[in-house]
Amino acid sequence: ALAAAIEPKIVMVGFMGAGKTTVGRALASWLGRPFVDTDELIAASAGRSIAEIFAEDGEQFFRRLEAEAIIEVLTGAPAVVSLGGGAVGTRAVREALTGHRVVFLDVGYDEALARVGADSGRPVLARPDLPELYAARQQLYREVATVTVPSTGEPGQTHQELADQLT
Ligand code: S3P
Protein backbone atom coordinates (compact mmCIF):
# COMPACT_ATOMS: atom_id res chain seq x y z
CA ALA A 1 0.00 0.00 0.00
CA LEU A 2 2.91 2.30 0.76
CA ALA A 3 4.51 1.62 -2.61
CA ALA A 4 1.26 2.48 -4.40
CA ALA A 5 1.30 5.93 -2.78
CA ILE A 6 4.70 6.80 -4.30
CA GLU A 7 4.47 8.74 -7.56
CA PRO A 8 6.66 7.13 -10.22
CA LYS A 9 9.55 9.42 -11.17
CA ILE A 10 11.56 9.52 -14.36
CA VAL A 11 15.13 8.84 -13.27
CA MET A 12 18.25 9.34 -15.39
CA VAL A 13 21.13 6.93 -14.82
CA GLY A 14 24.41 6.36 -16.65
CA PHE A 15 28.13 7.00 -16.39
CA MET A 16 29.71 10.43 -15.89
CA GLY A 17 29.42 12.29 -19.17
CA ALA A 18 26.35 10.37 -20.36
CA GLY A 19 24.37 13.62 -20.42
CA LYS A 20 22.03 12.83 -17.52
CA THR A 21 21.74 16.46 -16.45
CA THR A 22 21.48 17.96 -19.94
CA VAL A 23 18.97 15.43 -21.23
CA GLY A 24 17.08 15.24 -17.93
CA ARG A 25 16.66 19.00 -17.84
CA ALA A 26 15.34 19.07 -21.42
CA LEU A 27 12.96 16.20 -20.69
CA ALA A 28 11.67 17.91 -17.55
CA SER A 29 10.89 21.14 -19.33
CA TRP A 30 9.25 19.21 -22.18
CA LEU A 31 7.06 17.37 -19.65
CA GLY A 32 6.49 20.50 -17.54
CA ARG A 33 7.92 18.82 -14.45
CA PRO A 34 10.57 19.99 -12.05
CA PHE A 35 14.10 18.74 -12.60
CA VAL A 36 16.17 17.52 -9.66
CA ASP A 37 19.90 16.77 -9.85
CA THR A 38 20.71 14.77 -6.72
CA ASP A 39 24.40 15.81 -6.77
CA GLU A 40 23.29 19.46 -6.58
CA LEU A 41 20.93 18.57 -3.75
CA ILE A 42 23.67 16.81 -1.77
CA ALA A 43 26.13 19.68 -2.26
CA ALA A 44 23.51 22.28 -1.30
CA SER A 45 22.42 20.51 1.87
CA ALA A 46 26.03 19.74 2.89
CA GLY A 47 27.15 23.28 2.06
CA ARG A 48 30.14 21.77 0.27
CA SER A 49 31.00 20.62 -3.23
CA ILE A 50 31.01 16.90 -4.07
CA ALA A 51 34.81 17.09 -4.41
CA GLU A 52 35.09 18.59 -0.91
CA ILE A 53 32.87 15.91 0.60
CA PHE A 54 35.03 13.19 -1.00
CA ALA A 55 38.27 14.86 0.12
CA GLU A 56 37.18 15.60 3.68
CA ASP A 57 34.95 12.62 4.57
CA GLY A 58 35.64 9.99 1.92
CA GLU A 59 33.58 8.18 -0.66
CA GLN A 60 31.66 5.95 1.79
CA PHE A 61 30.34 9.02 3.58
CA PHE A 62 29.32 10.57 0.27
CA ARG A 63 27.51 7.35 -0.72
CA ARG A 64 25.42 7.48 2.46
CA LEU A 65 24.40 11.10 1.85
CA GLU A 66 23.70 10.18 -1.75
CA ALA A 67 21.44 7.24 -0.91
CA GLU A 68 19.49 9.31 1.63
CA ALA A 69 18.99 12.17 -0.82
CA ILE A 70 17.89 9.84 -3.61
CA ILE A 71 15.42 7.93 -1.46
CA GLU A 72 13.91 11.20 -0.27
CA VAL A 73 13.51 12.54 -3.81
CA LEU A 74 12.06 9.27 -5.11
CA THR A 75 9.36 9.31 -2.45
CA GLY A 76 8.55 13.01 -3.05
CA ALA A 77 6.67 15.03 -5.65
CA PRO A 78 6.68 14.17 -9.39
CA ALA A 79 9.93 15.14 -11.07
CA VAL A 80 12.61 14.17 -13.52
CA VAL A 81 15.57 13.12 -11.40
CA SER A 82 19.22 12.80 -12.41
CA LEU A 83 21.46 10.53 -10.29
CA GLY A 84 25.23 10.66 -9.96
CA GLY A 85 27.01 8.00 -12.02
CA GLY A 86 27.97 5.91 -9.00
CA ALA A 87 24.62 5.89 -7.21
CA VAL A 88 23.58 2.51 -8.62
CA GLY A 89 26.51 0.94 -6.80
CA THR A 90 24.51 1.25 -3.58
CA ARG A 91 22.04 -1.58 -3.06
CA ALA A 92 19.51 0.62 -1.22
CA VAL A 93 19.45 2.95 -4.25
CA ARG A 94 18.90 0.08 -6.68
CA GLU A 95 16.04 -1.18 -4.53
CA ALA A 96 14.50 2.30 -4.24
CA LEU A 97 14.42 2.54 -8.06
CA THR A 98 11.89 -0.29 -8.30
CA GLY A 99 8.58 0.98 -9.69
CA HIS A 100 10.10 4.13 -11.26
CA ARG A 101 10.81 4.80 -14.93
CA VAL A 102 14.55 4.49 -15.07
CA VAL A 103 16.29 5.81 -18.18
CA PHE A 104 19.77 4.47 -18.89
CA LEU A 105 21.71 6.95 -21.02
CA ASP A 106 24.23 4.59 -22.56
CA VAL A 107 27.50 6.32 -23.42
CA GLY A 108 30.70 4.65 -24.65
CA TYR A 109 33.75 4.80 -22.39
CA ASP A 110 35.90 6.94 -24.66
CA GLU A 111 33.06 9.31 -25.43
CA ALA A 112 32.27 9.69 -21.72
CA LEU A 113 35.87 10.57 -20.89
CA ALA A 114 36.13 12.95 -23.82
CA ARG A 115 33.04 14.79 -22.59
CA VAL A 116 33.99 15.15 -18.93
CA GLY A 117 37.68 15.80 -19.63
CA ALA A 118 39.89 16.19 -16.57
CA ASP A 119 37.10 17.80 -14.55
CA SER A 120 38.45 18.13 -11.01
CA GLY A 121 34.90 18.29 -9.69
CA ARG A 122 34.63 14.52 -10.30
CA PRO A 123 36.95 12.73 -7.89
CA VAL A 124 36.07 9.28 -9.24
CA LEU A 125 37.81 10.13 -12.54
CA ALA A 126 41.14 9.76 -10.74
CA ARG A 127 40.55 6.10 -9.92
CA PRO A 128 43.12 3.79 -11.52
CA ASP A 129 40.46 1.11 -12.12
CA LEU A 130 38.18 3.43 -14.12
CA PRO A 131 37.70 1.07 -17.11
CA GLU A 132 36.70 -1.80 -14.79
CA LEU A 133 34.43 0.52 -12.84
CA TYR A 134 32.77 1.58 -16.09
CA ALA A 135 32.20 -2.04 -17.11
CA ALA A 136 30.79 -3.04 -13.73
CA ARG A 137 28.46 -0.07 -13.68
CA GLN A 138 27.18 -0.69 -17.20
CA GLN A 139 25.83 -3.98 -15.81
CA LEU A 140 24.08 -2.19 -12.96
CA TYR A 141 22.57 0.49 -15.22
CA ARG A 142 21.13 -2.28 -17.41
CA GLU A 143 19.81 -4.04 -14.34
CA VAL A 144 17.83 -1.03 -13.06
CA ALA A 145 16.81 0.46 -16.44
CA THR A 146 13.29 0.33 -17.83
CA VAL A 147 14.34 2.34 -20.92
CA THR A 148 17.77 2.44 -22.58
CA VAL A 149 18.77 5.22 -24.96
CA PRO A 150 22.16 5.55 -26.63
CA SER A 151 23.71 8.88 -25.71
CA THR A 152 24.98 10.30 -28.99
CA GLY A 153 27.03 13.45 -29.43
CA GLU A 154 23.82 15.39 -29.97
CA PRO A 155 21.70 16.00 -26.82
CA GLY A 156 18.73 17.09 -28.96
CA GLN A 157 18.66 13.73 -30.72
CA THR A 158 18.99 11.79 -27.46
CA HIS A 159 16.14 13.82 -26.02
CA GLN A 160 13.97 13.14 -29.09
CA GLU A 161 14.58 9.37 -28.93
CA LEU A 162 13.76 9.39 -25.27
CA ALA A 163 10.60 11.44 -25.72
CA ASP A 164 9.48 8.92 -28.37
CA GLN A 165 10.12 6.00 -26.03
CA LEU A 166 8.38 7.57 -23.05
CA THR A 167 5.18 8.53 -24.87
C1 S3P B 1 30.30 9.99 -9.43
C2 S3P B 1 29.66 10.76 -10.36
C3 S3P B 1 29.28 12.17 -10.14
C4 S3P B 1 29.15 12.47 -8.65
C5 S3P B 1 30.36 12.02 -7.92
C6 S3P B 1 30.63 10.52 -8.07
C7 S3P B 1 30.66 8.59 -9.75
O1 S3P B 1 28.05 12.44 -10.81
O2 S3P B 1 28.02 11.85 -8.10
O3 S3P B 1 31.45 12.77 -8.39
O4 S3P B 1 30.95 7.80 -8.84
O5 S3P B 1 30.62 8.26 -10.96
P1 S3P B 1 27.93 12.58 -12.44
O6 S3P B 1 27.65 11.21 -13.00
O7 S3P B 1 26.75 13.48 -12.59
O8 S3P B 1 29.19 13.18 -12.94
Automatic annotation (TrEMBL):
Annotated ATP binding sites: 17-22, 122, 157
Binding site for Mg(2+): 21
Binding site for substrate: 39, 63, 85, 137
Subcellular location: Cytoplasm
Top-level taxon: Bacteria
Assigned protein family: Belongs to the shikimate kinase family.
Subunit structure: Monomer.
UniProt function note: Catalyzes the specific phosphorylation of the 3-hydroxyl group of shikimic acid using ATP as a cosubstrate.
Name listed for the protein in its UniProt record: Shikimate kinase
Organism from which the protein derives: Propionicimonas paludicola
Lineage start: Bacteria, Bacillati, Actinomycetota, Actinomycetes, Propionibacteriales
Residue numbers of the full-length protein present here: 259 to 425 of 433
